[in-house]
Structure formats: C-alpha cells, structure tokens
Amino acid sequence: MFRFMVIVSAAFCLAGSSRAQQADPQNQQETIQALRQEINELKARVAALEAGQTKTEASAEVPSPVQPANTAAISPEPFGFHRGIKLQGFGSVTYKASDANPPDLGASLGFRPGSAGNFAVGDIDLFLTSQFSLRTSVLSEVVFSEQSSGEFETDVERLLLKFDPGDYLKMSFGRFHTATSYYNSVFHHGLWLQTAADRPLVVEFSDHGGLLPSQAVGGSFTGRLPSGSMGLNYILEYGSAATIRPQITSPDAPEIEEHNSNEITAGVFLQPDWLPGLDVGGSFYHDHINPEGSNLHIAQAISSVHAVYNNSRFEFLNEAFLIQHKIEETGQTFNTPAFYTLISRKLGAQWRPYFRYQYTNAATGSPVFPDVGLRHGPSAGIRFDANDYVAIKAQYDRTFRRDLPDFNDALGQLAFRF
Questions:
Q1: Structural contact between residues 335 and 365, judged by C-beta atoms closer than 8 angstroms
Q2: In angstroms, how far is CA 211 from the centroid of its own chain?
Q3: pLDDT in tens, 346-369
C-alpha cells in the first residue's frame, strides 16, 4: 500500500509538471526524465523497506530452541531442523600376533587362528540417522564383519524408530543393542569410539564370541525418574533375542545357536548433576534358551552392575556380571561370574595410555559356554589420536586359561571415522 501511494503521488507530480511546461518541449523532456529517475529510486527504496519488514516478521515467527511446556503448539520443523539422512562411518585395520597353542579365536573376527600374525579389517560400520520431526527419528547401523576365512558378512545391528515425548519417556522400536551391560549400551561397533583395541570378552558382541545376548528385536523404553540432582534413570526392554556365537577355543566347530525366547530387561542408573561423568547402576535380564542340538530347556538370568567415571581426560570403567543357567529338566545350575576394569588418562593433547584387567569363569560342564572355562589376564596399551578422525593403538594382552597353556597377544590398530 505504501509503495502504491508513493508511485501515484509521483505520477501526479509528473503530469502537473508536464502541463506547466508545454511551452518548452526540451525543458519538459528533461523534467520528465528526472521525475522518472526519482520514481525508480523511490521504488527501490520501497522494495528495500518491504524486504526488511518481511524479514523481521519471518524472524519473529521462528520458534525458540527452548521448548515450551505445551508441546502441542510446536512446529514440526523447529529452529535448526533439517530433513534428510545423515551418514557416518567407522572402520579399522588391525594387525594381531598370538602364540596361543592350541589356537584361540578369542573375541576377534577376521583373524586366522594358528597363524603367527595377520591383518584384518574387522568391522566396517555405517551409521545412519534421519530426523522426521521434533520428536521422531530413525537410526540404522549396518555392519560388514570380516570372518576368519577373509569373507565378509553383512548384519543389520540396529534399526530403530524412535519417539521422544519428553525427558521421562523415550521409546525405540526395532532391533537394538540390549541393556545387559553399560559397554553394550554406550560403545557400539565402531572401534574408534573406544579406548582399547578390542572389547573385553564378556561384553564382546555375541556373533564375535561374547557371552551376553547383545541384540534383540522389540521395544525399549527409557527416561528420567523424579530424583532431583541425583539424575536417576530407568530402562525397560522387551523383545526377541537371537544369540548365535562361535566357539572361541574351537574355531572350526559349529556355532552355538541358543534359540532364545522373548527377553525382558530392567535396569536403573544414576548420572548426578553434581558430578558430570559419573554413571552408576545395574540391570537384570531374563529369557529361556534351547541350545541347538540339545533337548535342554534352560532359564537364563544375567545380573550386572557398573560404576563408571569418564571425562575429557580421565576414564575409569568397571562392570561385574553373574550369568546363571538353570536346566529346567534337572534343576542343575551353572554360574558364570565375570568382570572387567579399565583405567586410562589422557596425556597432552593426543596420547592416552590405558590398563585393563578382565576375568571370566564359566563352570565346567556348562551346556552354554563349553568353550570358555576360566580365562583372565591384563591388557596394557596406548592410544594416539592423530586428529579428530584417526586413532592409532598398540596393545599387549596376557591371558591365563584353565587346563590350557597361557598365551600372549600383540595388537596394532588404525581406527578411523568418516
């Protein structure tokens, strides 16, 4: 409207000047040209004013990143929100030498048991996320795992549709990593994410020889509990686990298929506001299994506790487990206690030496862990972060085994993200 009034007024001025100067055509033409130039300048100024007004109005309509209490009025595309798929990746190249005799697969795939030493790619991890709206997103983790034969196997490790109504309830549906351990919930398949070159045996992924049911398909629910500055949280899971693990002392033996029933996991943990980096809690897991090739029906219960302190320079991880298998036909019970502890401290901007001790003691005659037995020992290593994307690790392991010779491992690893 403002632009219209300015242009009309200028036109009237132009017409009046034209009539007043009809006696001098040359002067009239010059006046008309000057008025036209003035009109064009006025148009430009009006356009600039209108553009500034529109920009101000649009800025006022953008919602604040601070979420109001009434979420019903929130736009589905909040401040800074962008649709699309975000892709991240993790990879590693590891050299491992071992003097285990007889050969021991340990908890690492991609290595050829019995060889003096060889390189392996291990896991190639593609991590995809997509945000649908303020509260809804999808997460996918696809992993290409190198086998001891040198071939690769493709697994969908996680595929989740996530809803986050608020701090007190966050829901995920699909395939997830179970909350049977802190390590399983925090450190996923990218080796760049963790300090050490490998995972402790008890929390290794089951398809790599680990002891816990590491994946399930179903629903996972977590959130805060009213606790003030204590930062108490809960987690509940219900789903179908499908645990298949190789026998780590018999690489050529058939894999152990547990044929799990539906599982339920419940846990609590606290992350107090007054000490950032502290995480203390535990979980309980229960299902029934019927191992391949046996007529046994076994109730499986896994209890775990953890105490973790982690900040930018210091890392202290501690977890303990009791894995119990009770044969329903006979009432016989087999207990497998296990734990690990890892401590590291960053020196300067790039170096991080670390020390770890792990312990696993599967009962003799266990129908689920016939290959594990008693094994324990220290690991020592150092990590060098060349930059924010590439880490170089060197690690030495000493493993003591019941009824089998002790052995040594040496690992060198280049881990990266992209």
A1: no
A2: 21
A3: 999 999 999 999 999 999 899 999
pLDDT digits (tens, 9 = 90+) for 260-296: 999 999 999 999 999 999 999 999 999 999 998 888 9
Do residues 412 and 384 make contact, with C-beta atoms less than 8 angstroms apart?
A: no
The residue behind tokens 């991590």 is 127
- pTM, two decimals, is 0.78
Sign of CA pseudo-dihedral 104, 106, 110, 116: negative
- Please classify residue 257 by burial: count the beta carbons closer than 10 Å to its beta carbon, then call 0-12 exposed, 13-18 middle and 19+ buried: middle
What single-letter DSSP state applies at residue 36?
H
β-partners of residue 92 are: 415
Task: Judge contact between 389 and 362, C-beta under 8 A.
Answer: no
What is the average per-residue pLDDT within 142-167?
89
Q: Chain centroid to CA 2: how far? A: 56
Greatest CA separation for the chain? 123
* Percent over 90 (pLDDT), the chain: 63
Provide the token pair at 87. 């892709």
Q: What is the distance between the alpha carbons of residues 4 and 128, in angstroms, rounded to a whole number?
A: 52
CB 220 within 8 A of CB 179: yes
Check residue 37 and report its DSSP letter.
Answer: H
